[in-house]
């Protein structure tokens, strides 16, 4: 905490009570973990990787006119940010954070769209209750963020498999306008077994990822597990980014999504972004069918003007430094425009979903402040929409 630029940004963005920009979203492709569907990695000879904007990203896919979205009132910080998209049986399931009163009292909601009509979304309801928003109650349920569905494959005692949903719970510290340093991973479980259980309803289990297990990374902010390509990983090991207070690191579990999760012994915090950038937010990892791992996040203070922060990896654990000639976002990664000039403002990533019929082509889902995205000169803040762009993964060998 304490960067003057960030304090200014937060002051601009604050609706009321403690702002919380640290909450992360996550996106989940059904083949990302727990399914034995990985292709063998062909990534070892890649020397550079980038995402190239192709089309889209200007007209919102969710805005104040979409049934189920909160109504637009003045320039209050409302709408959606963070969240998760998972593909299940040809359907996209998005789990964004719904802001009906700025960054507090939030809940996780559910929208769906057919994969072949990914611009038309239907509201399916709340996944979690609303956060209570009460100051100084130490139960990590003042604001509920960043739903991330997690598929646990069939196993003894759970013959159909089951969906879990990690959610980040924060306290409301009304004195600390920056907030976002005390996230805990709360785990919800679908009451319905099998792949169709993605629709819920979801019931809360005990906290699984208390900050204590993972210090000194000050809390947790998202949990979106995937498998690495490290040859010496034990079978079934899951990796995930986590962190808050703008430091971001990696952890792993050898016992499924419920953990326990162990902080990676080396390399934390990961060198993505830094305090000058306002810190990294919402780091999401996607394994492309090429085998290359794609890391996208919001480089706070930069992304409101320049788009998406990006880095890549051959194994999902070691991230390539100095890959980009664009705007630097710290030691690794660079900024990718998400729309044509004049519309590149970006808030948080939602998903990179690779086209089923065409390798290396992705739909990028993201959120952005409507005012700022339409007019870069507009003050930062206001209603947050969701958008979709088409991008190509360009690999150099
Ligand atoms: C939502 O977006 C559509 C398409 O751009 C636009 O026609 C409509 O006016 C927008 N609604 C709001 C409330 O901004
Ligand atoms: C909202 O922001 C826009 C863009 O800066 C501005 O033109 C408009 O006057 C603001 N509306 C209100 C109600 O403050
Ligand atoms: C990798 O690709 C990016 C995007 O084209 C480019 O800006 C950068 O210079 C490349 N890096 C190297 C080391 O070639
Ligand atoms: C931190 O980010 C700033 C702004 O992008 C950049 O100028 C600086 O070199 C970065 N510092 C490190 C250590 O990466
Ligand atoms: C999203 O829809 C567009 C057409 O509107 C299509 O080209 C693209 O392949 C779709 N994305 C995915 C991931 O299927």
UniProtKB/TrEMBL annotation:
This is Uncharacterized protein. The lineage of its organism: Eukaryota, Sar, Stramenopiles, Ochrophyta, Pelagophyceae. The keyword Signal applies. It comes from Aureococcus anophagefferens. It comes from the Eukaryota. Keywords: Signal. Residues 1-23 form the signal peptide. SUPFAM superfamilies: Arabinanase/levansucrase/invertase. InterPro entries: Glyco_hydro_beta-prop_sf (IPR023296).
